TrEMBL record:
Keywords: Disulfide bond
Any one GO cellular component localisation term in the record: plasma membrane
Cross-referenced Pfam families: CUB (PF00431)
Keyword Disulfide bond belongs to the record: yes
Domain CUB: 1-68
Protein name per the record: CUB domain-containing protein
Length: 537
């Protein structure tokens, strides 16, 4: 190619994927030579030479491409392979089974205490065998997830078949998940080169079995199953969503009180290319709060296009020049309101702690803008904790006087709150209630918002008031016939410590004895049904 003065038009670019929008691995121009090693599954070489307008000056390049087997990377069969000794996780079990069947079967046992995940290929395990049985056996608290990447099952009218079982075939009952009847085949990609939707299966307990039975008069060498497997610890890693390859759920009633999360395993995502969304759903009980701590050190490949900004309203993603969907990020969404609780992208250099207690749950979405098996996304470490709800305190008060204020905590990290508190304050019969609200000095209605409501026996006799951060102290009068006040406080963003709610009860003066003459309108008790709101300067 031409020298460096024309590197803008004469170059060879290598991309990790199937298009020039895939991540760039390397580019060369001039007389550069280089050895590039890439683990696949797809690579695009883009050659450009000469100016973009006539007269063109075409040049060329020379490259050598070598394919070699790499441990952990699936080798998809294209031509039959000669028989060889299978590399087994448990050679003793497989050898005994093979010998007992006269060399016509292959048995493979995968155990989680040997390896947690990997790739299987029946044509590589025992080429030319008529029957193949793959058993995946995990520990008691584990489930098994299997994804089929590619297969070819021949014969006619189901002469050859593959069956996937929830558990082992020795187990009682009908535990068949799916049967693949020949002739049937599947390729990882469609005609345009795009990966097809995955076929995956999830066991209900700690075992799963796959059986491949080939018809007597079919070509054994051309039939195979290729896929990946993963042992998932439900106790430590959450409950797997059976409808997704990477979504998990954590329930406060059954999950451990605390734990840690990292990015999803990539083995089952081998045939995924493009945008990737994995959901971690946290569902606390009504008496629990959820604390999520994002550890420092998170860094994304798209950090040049997005930064995390944390302030009084919490942490938010600030993408530049592109939409948020085009950058890698972590997004936390409240499941009931669908409001964004927080967002993290780019480099996270400080530990951030979020406390959520607003009813419903939290959906943490791990988003990779362009995922490939070779460039699997970004690393993060997150700690979670289910704990008894403590920020709001008791929900019901009947004392004639009292106060509610922020709960004091001594932690090295500033808490970012997404909390909704509900309180009921009752007054003795015949007594009115006076509430004094002193909001925090800084913030807005978006960060600190208090609502006072009360009602009488008549459904139309309702009162409602509101106070926000940075407003003056406000007095709310609740009339005697309303009996109680219902208070809702929404806390969003950084925790505030300078607000206070106090109350006291008092008995209004008695009215003069009633007579047969109706009182004048200005003396009627109906004129005092509405609370008086005072703002102290």
């Amino acid at each position: 190619m031409h020298g460096r003065v024309r590197c803008s038009t004469d170059y060879v670019a290598v991309y990790a994927g199937t298009s020039t929008s895939s991540p760039l691995i390397d580019s060369l121009c001039g007389s550069q030579t280089r050895t590039i090693r890439f683990s696949g599954p797809s690579v695009l070489v883009d050659f450009s030479s000469g100016p973009r307008v006539p007269q063109y000056k075409h040049s060329g390049f020379l490259a050598t491409v070598t394919f070699s087997g790499v441990v952990g990377v699936p080798s998809l069969p294209s031509t039959p392979k000669p028989p060889r000794v299978p590399a087994l996780h448990n050679p003793q079990e497989a050898a005994a089974a093979d010998e007992g069947a006269g060399g016509r079967v292959c048995d493979q046992v995968y155990r989680s205490n040997v390896t947690r995940e990997g790739i299987f290929d029946t044509s590589a395990l025992a080429p030319g065998r008529q029957t193949c049985c793959l058993r995946f056996i995990g520990n008691e608290e584990e489930v098994v997830q299997v994804s089929l990447f590619k297969y070819n099952i021949g014969g006619r009218n189901c002469q050859s078949e593959a069956s996937i079982y929830d558990g082992l075939t020795d187990d009682p009952g009908d535990n068949l998940l799916r049967r693949l009847c020949g002739p049937m085949s599947r390729e990882p990609r469609d005609a345009t080169g795009r990966f097809l939707q995955q076929e995956f299966f999830l066991s209900s307990a700690n075992a799963l079995e796959i059986r491949l039975n080939l018809g007597q008069n079919t070509n054994f060498l051309s039939q195979y199953l290729v896929g990946g497997y993963h042992f998932h610890n439900s106790l430590q890693e959450g409950t797997k969503n059976p409808g997704s390859v990477c979504d998990v759920m954590f329930y406060g009633a059954s999950s451990p009180g605390r734990g840690s999360l990292i990015q999803p395993s990539t083995t089952l995502l081998w045939n995924v290319e493009g945008a990737l969304n994995c959901s971690y759903l946290f569902v606390p009980t009504s008496s629990q709060s959820l604390t999520i701590t994002v550890q420092e050190g998170m860094s994304t490949a798209t950090k040049a296009h997005c930064t995390t900004e944390c302030g009084e309203e919490g942490c938010q993603c600030q993408p530049s020049m592109v939409a948020l969907q085009h950058v890698d990020h972590l997004l936390l969404v409240h499941t009931l309101s669908h409001n964004v609780i927080a967002c993290f992208c780019g480099d996270v250099k400080e530990e951030r702690r979020l406390v959520v207690n607003a009813g419903g749950g939290v959906d943490l979405i791990y988003h990779v803008a362009h995922f490939t098996w070779a460039t699997p996304g970004f690393n993060f470490t997150l700690d979670y904790r289910f704990a008894p709800a403590a920020i709001c305190g008791p929900e019901y008060y009947s004392n004639p006087t009292g106060e509610i204020g922020p709960r004091q905590y001594t932690t090295p990290v500033t808490n970012i709150l997404y909390v909704t508190c509900h309180w009921g304050i009752a007054s003795p019969q015949g007594a009115a209630l006076a509430l004094t609200v002193s909001p925090p000095s800084q913030g807005s209605c978006a960060t600190w918002n208090l609502t006072v409501e009360s009602a009488g026996k008549d459904k139309n006799d309702k009162l409602r008031g509101n106070a926000c951060a940075a407003e003056d102290t406000t007095l709310f009068d609740i009339p005697a016939h309303h009996l109680a006040a219902e208070i809702t406080l929404e806390l969003r963003g950084e925790q505030r410590h300078d607000w206070l709610l106090t109350w006291n009860t008092h008995w209004p003066p008695r009215l003069p004895p009633t007579t047969s003459v109706s009182p004048k309108p200005e003396l009627s008790r109906t004129s005092d049904l509405h609370p008086t709101r005072y703002s102290t300067i």
